[in-house]
Amino acid sequence: MLILRRADVTDVLSGREREVIDLVADAYRLHDAGLTSLPHSTFLRFPEERHARDRIIGLPAYRGGERPVAGMKWIASFPGNVAAGAERASAALVLNSLDTGRPVAFAEAAVVSARRTAASAALAAAELTRGRPAPHAVLLIGCGVINLEILRFLTAALPDLREAALYDTDPARAEAFTIRAAEAAPGVKAYPVTDLPAALAGHRLISLATTAATPHLDLTACGPDTTVLHISLRDLTPETILGAINVVDDADHVCRERTSLDLAQQVSGGREFVHATIGALLRGTAALPADRTRPVIYSPFGLGVLDVALAEFVREEAERRGLGIRVDDFLTD
């Protein structure tokens, strides 16, 4: 068993944003081709009122193709951590041998989760704005770990990106975010904004990564050429979803657990509002409407296949570089 600490994972992934984006794109293509296995995620919730917003999610997954891998991520989301100055999410991931089924690696996975999420967002931003003027600015709504990683990965996927407007319900968080943004994306000018409708109207690329549990936002201020990365999945009203062009990673996974798309499904009685998956767009088996008169919303559930694919990438590189802690008697008496 190889145990990979956060420092090991971070060491392997630092400066490799383009490789991670390519790995995520390949996983999406394999998923669209039917070469993955992705049971629905398991949501563990708690009966006590003080844990009403907390949950721990299990994501089992298998990626087939030329380099198959299987495993499971176990990720906790405790939004109250943020007010206490701690990260909302923590995670661990186990990889299993496909020869024996035995666990071969146990990795800290909050970094894996954040970076595969950011890579997915950046990949979609590039794909959904292809053939249109390249965005030079992005509006980040929610100034936490995920949008920081998204900004980092956007600079790899969108070389023309020069500005990042920052909005948070806590203005102090947006101010503090500017310092971290300067380190993560030194070529991008990051600055806080307080007028959200004006910011929505002034940006063609928007990333939503908040801790919202219920819809609170519409896109009436946005132009029809806006691309929205709806990463936190519960920000947009069902009516906004139904009035947009929608791209997802997997409709069965994302239309659950009272996401904005699940609520839109309940309102409309179906999923006809989902126009394409990102994997189908990448493989050319689907296309967006030629007449782009509505905003495009990308709502990825966050498929476990991305986690196991990236964790395997980290494991292989860690083995090569001698990183991590080897426990050879993990399975022996």
How does this structure look, described?
This protein is of the alpha/beta class. The protein is 37% helix and 23% strand. Strand 6 (89-96) and strand 7 (103-108) form a beta hairpin. Helix 2 (17-32) packs across helix 12 (304-321). The radius of gyration is 19 Å and the shape is globular. 48% of the residues are buried. The mean pLDDT is 96.
From the 3D coordinates, which CATH architecture of the largest domain would you assign? Answer: 3-Layer(aba) Sandwich
* Helix and strand element order: EHHEEEEHEEHEHEHEHEEHEHHEHEHE
Mean pLDDT: 96
Whole-number count of domains: 2
- What is the number of helical segments per DSSP (H or I, 4+ residues)? 12
What's the end-to-end separation, in Å?
A: 14 Å
Q: Radius of gyration over alpha carbons?
A: 19 Å
Q: Biggest sheet: strands, sense, closure? A: 8 strands, mixed
CATH topology of the largest domain: Rossmann fold
